[in-house]
Amino acid sequence: xxxxxxxxxxxxxxxxxxxxxxxSYSGKKFKSEIWxxxxxxxxxxxxxxxxxxxxxxxxxxxxxxxxxMGWHADDExxxxxxxxxxxxxxxxxxxFKLKHRLxxxxxxxxxxxxxxxxxxxxxxxxxxxxxxxxxxxxxGRINLTFRYIHT
Length: 151
Fold this sequence. Notes:
Layout: E1 12-17, E2 22-25, E3 28-31, E4 33-34, H1 37-50, E5 56-62, E6 69-72, E7 85-91, E8 94-100, E9 106-111, E10 116-119, H2 123-126, E11 127-131, E12 141-147
Parallel strand pairs: 1-4
Antiparallel strand pairs: 1-5, 2-3, 5-12, 6-11, 7-10, 7-12, 8-9, 8-11
């Protein structure tokens, strides 16, 4: 939902976790599947790396540079006040953008194959993030965003 209007999501998504529960954002409700062993191992690696617990992952498949994600913050109530998001990227490198909510200052971060981006503290309160279109890119990218859903 963007400004109250429904749009097709320009990427493929799946949601899984360590138990069955639901998660909603932008007017879409996800029901989790139990995560596969390899995904669980990545969740454990994310926990060891940043010291936060994770019970779910939102997986995004960006098929090529036409698939994208607009400006947003991961600030749903189910994530709590200052959520920790651990985001693994696999495949085609892409530019991840950050924009401050008040000053509009922006940063570009190239997320290469195998990278881990951690957003914590006040990141979701003060910053938007996006993955813009890059029409010249013809390879895919998988992004696994680990989070803790308060059920």
